[in-house]
Amino acid sequence: MLINHILIVEDDDEAGLWTKVFLEENDFSVTIFSTITDAISNIQFHKYDLILLDLNLPDFNGFELLKFINQNKINIPVIIVSAYSDKKTKLQAFKYGASDYMTKPIDLEELEARIWVHLNKNSSFKLLEKKKIFEKKKNSIFFKDENLKLTKIEFEIFSILLSNKNNLIAREYLAKQLSSKAHERSLDYHIRNIRKKIGDDGSVPQYLITEYARGYKLII
Question: pTM for the whole thing?
Answer without folding.
Answer: 0.56
